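Model: Ready when you are.
Researcher: Fold this.
Model:
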Amino acid sequence: MDGTYSVATIGSWGGVVILGKATNNLVAINTPQAFGSKVGLAPGLGLIEGFNNTGSHNRYGVQTSGALFSGEAALGSFDDNDNSGVLKYVSLRHTGAILEVGAEINGLTLGSVGRGTTIEHIEVVSGADDQIELFGGTVNMKYVSSLFGNDDNLDYDQGYSGNIQFFFAMKNDLTASPDNDNGIEADSDDNSAQSSPASVPTIYNSTFMGNGKVTGTADNRGLAAITAKDGAGGKIINCVFANFKNGLAIDRNLGSRTLAAGGNAWHNWYATPSTPATATASTGNGTLNLQVKCNHFVGVTNPLVFGANALASNGTALTAANASDAGIANGAEFTQFTTTDKNVIVSGNTLPGFDYTFTRSGNTFSAKNDPTPNPALATTGCPTAPVNGFFETANYRGAFSSEYGENWLSTWSYSQVLGATRGVAACPTDLNFDGTTNVSDFLIFAPAFGTTCN
């Protein structure tokens, strides 16, 4: 496609589904809905949502115990190094099929996909449901863009524990996509059973741009850059989140589940454990399974909230049952968020070199956003990415650095075809990477004129 098909068009076809045999935390057994279920057919064995249960080709994971489910040959064990192939330089556009509420096919659906699989330089554009959703698995992803989708940009669940670096997400404008949801939706068990293992992915150097949505809808209530619920964990570090109503929204107190199996996502995040190490309504569980550190939150109305899905557009609780869960952070929590965890809050659209606004008419962008802060955002005192053969050294926050002139979107990405962003396009004459070619670049070049590059 040449960029003339409207970015407001969604759901033209289903999307891509990849299934594997890596770890998930499915333990509950339910009768599948008409179009699939989010819980297990048997321990370790799932039916991908949106699919009919017509055979093993629609299932993911491995049945690890219990009486054999119909069609399964034998019990087995997970293979976290499972290889489902290679997906590189692929653009998935105008995807998504919503078969019934809670049963949708995403732009890219990954069920128990193992780390032997390669997913790099891909994009999902204008999806009707989540752009990318992971149900368990250990697969890694790098150089990913998620553009103009109608739901979450990235949704992980059921014990997903892979690595992600250089993820760029850009919401559509509200006119074209009024029902969009979170930047990241972090779950550990969609059935709220606190299954083990928890979802604990590691995410570095990503940029998520929202569109300022302030009122939730029936199916998409999320208003947050990051919504963490159902016992979710994960490390989200050195990223930039912009133009969301809420920043980090953490579920905390959900009735009788509050203390079960170590508590909810809030207990995984709060750094003050109780003694003995048992979760309570006011202290963390000591696991620190959820770490959100060294990120910038730009133009975010409520940087840290609890029970965000229960909040009305004015920040008040929707129901009395959720009243104790909903609300803005208290002093100690806010101190952890800003001082201990080194998250930076920037009021409005005022981060130098960075601009989350754009103006679109059809596929023409008369004003473009800029995801490259200038100067680059420092990571002093912040955790460094693991040295594990996957992560690359990136001493800055966000998916791009104007200082280093890196443009991994290059000319293949749809955002570059449309000219939807500025600051990341290749510009060989911009020697100091400030977004313009001017006298400063000449002063860099002039002393070097006539010298050899050998």
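Researcher: Now this one.
Model:
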Amino acid sequence: MFVCRKQDQHGRALVRGIAAAALSLVLGGTAAAASAPHPMPLGEQAAPPDGFLDFCRRQPGDCGIDPAEARALLRSSQSGSAQSGSAWAWRFAASRQAPGSVYTPQRANLSEDDEVEAPRIENPAMTPELWAVAQRVNQYVNRTIIRRSDWSAYGVNDRWATPLADGRRYGDCEDYALEKRRLLIQAGVPAQALDIALATTRWGDSHAVLLLSAGGGEYVLDNLDAWILPWDQAPYRWRARQVGGDPFHWVRAATN
């Protein structure tokens, strides 16, 4: 369950964020790009969150899974519709591996001191246009979704969702992140440049944000702050994240 507290001075932060966006456009977007010259260091492989896997089962297209392929796997299993998100996702991931291989991300052959080199994916440049789109999407989602816990909204401890796509106006931190990812993809941002990341706040709460990889750096789109910040300037202890937008490729953050 992600608590996702709201900052007391959110309105003031929103004004700062709008001003930052305007300044970045005036400067051609170079100031923001220059402040984030490197991606987040990656550690050992990790299992995706159960709530995210359940979201992938319910909305494979929004998760980055081909819906037709997902439906075929469900039809091939007599108990597919009753499977948990985790069980279904592991079956799906295993079905995509080479014959005889087993998909076991929780048992990666890496020590805690090993790091995973980031994949060499052509991410977009941080242009003024991309910066403006990211700012608009970040502000729109932050303003539109009303913060509400999963227990209050759905009667469960953890449910990942895209509330705006579902005709709802409330959600918690992972819902903000998933909606931003969905809208940025619709705006033309490559899916492989958008990753969900998990962190711990200064209050000790679990939190989820969206990472945008662009211009050689990674930027945080957060529902707790209107600023879009380089990952190493956000006030969080990073725990785990997606890599390259792959729903099944998650790693621990090697930032400490």
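Researcher: Key takeaway?
Model: Residues 6-34, 97-120 have pLDDT under 50 and may be disordered.
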